[in-house]
Amino acid sequence: MKEESIIQLFTKSNTKFHNDDCEVLEVKKNHIPIVTCDSLIENVHFRLDWHPPEDLAKKLFHVNLSDVISSGGLPQWCLLQIGISKNITKEFLYKFSKSFLKECKKYQTTLIGGDTFRSDIFILSLTMGGYTKKYISRKSEPNSYLYVTGNLGLSLLGYKILNKEIEIPQNLKKIPIQKHLAPKARTDIAKTIYPYTSAMMDVSDGLVQDATKMAKVSGYQLIIYVERIPIQKKFRNFIDYESALISGEEYELLFTSKKNLKNLSFTKIGWVSDQKIKNQPVKFLLNGKEIFPKKGFEHF
C-alpha cells in the first residue's frame, strides 16, 4: 500500500482530521492539560503470531488511556505513529484501523495526526492527550493506605499459556489470554477512586517495579502484605504470589488514600510508612516474614 492509502484508513471517516502539519488544540477553562506516550514493538511487547490486529489496536489505545485515567484525566486527542514492516498486509492494517478508530469513538478521543514509515519490524507508538480538573501524581503521603484494583497475575498467566509454558483447563484459558492480548484501562472504577486518592499509577511493569517507582517518588517506604495480593479464586492453582507480584501489563490501578476504604473492586494491600527511604523502597511481607521477590521483565 502507498502511504496515502494507509493514512486514509485512519482518516477517511474522521471529519475532524485537518491534514495539516500541526493541529490547533482546544484549551478548556479550569482544566489542566495532560499528555502521555507509549510504544509497542514487535517481539518485545507483542508477537504477530499471537496478536490479532483488532486486539493489538485495543492494547495500544488502552496502555495510553490507562496513564491518562491514572493521572485523574479524560482523553481528548491522540497521535499515531506506525512503522510498517513487509509482513503487514492490507487486510491486517484494515482490521487494525477499524478496531483503533472504534476505541477512539468509544472514549471520545480524536485522532489528530501522526506518522507512517517503513520499518524492519512492526512498530506502534501512540501519544495521547487529555484534561483533568485535579492532577493525580505518583507521590504518596506518609501514613496512607495502599490499594490495588482488580486481580493480579492474569497477564503473565496468559503469556505462559500462549508460550506453552503452562497448561490449564480449556474453559479457563480465555480470560488470561485476553488479559494479555488486549488489556483494558480501568475506566470503570477510576472515577470512584478520584475523590479519595492522594497518589495513583497503573500496574504496567508489575507490582514490584511499580510500587518501587511510587515509593521513590514519594520518598517514603511502602509496606506490602503479599498474602493480601488479589488473585482471582479460580486461577489460584496457576498463579502464585511471586507471579502476581511481577506480572506486567495488568493495567490495574495502584493508589493510596488516607481513608480506610472498603470496595469489592479494589483491595487494601499495605500502607505508606512514615519512614524515609534508605536502601529499601518497598518491604514485602508474607505472613509476617520478609521476602525478596524478583523484579520481573525489564526493558534494559
The chain-level mean pLDDT equals: 94
DSSP strand content: 25-35%
Q: Helix/strand-derived class?
A: alpha+beta
The top level CATH class name of the largest domain:
Alpha Beta
SSE string: HEHEHEEEHHHEHEHEEEE
Q: Which labels suit this protein?
A:
about 300 residues, alpha+beta, 60s Ribosomal Protein L30, Chain: A, Phosphoribosyl-aminoimidazole Synthetase, Chain A, domain 2, seven-stranded mixed beta sheet, four-stranded mixed beta sheet, 8 helices, about 25% strand
Question: What does this 3D model show about the protein?
Answer:
The chain is α+β, with helices and mostly antiparallel strands and 300 residues long. It folds into 2 domains: 3-132, 60s Ribosomal Protein L30, Chain: A, CATH 3.30.1330.10; 144-291, PurM-like C-terminal domain (Phosphoribosyl-aminoimidazole Synthetase, Chain A, domain 2, Alpha-Beta Complex). Helix content is 29%, strand content 27%. It has 8 helices and 11 strands. It has a 7-stranded mixed beta sheet with strand order 6-8-5-9-7-10-11. Strand 2 (74-84), helix 3 (90-106) and strand 3 form a beta-alpha-beta unit. Helix 2 (53-70) packs parallel to helix 3 and helix 4 (154-162) crosses helix 5. The radius of gyration is 20 Å and the shape is globular.
Question: Topology, pairings included?
Answer:
Blueprint: H1 3-11, E1 32-41, H2 53-70, E2 74-84, H3 90-106, E3 110-118, E4 123-132, E5 144-149, H4 154-162, H5 174-181, H6 187-193, E6 197-202, H7 207-218, E7 220-225, H8 241-246, E8 253-257, E9 266-276, E10 282-286, E11 289-291
Parallel strand pairs: 2-3, 7-10
Antiparallel strand pairs: 1-4, 2-4, 5-8, 5-9, 6-8, 7-9, 10-11
Helix pairs in contact: 2-3, 4-5
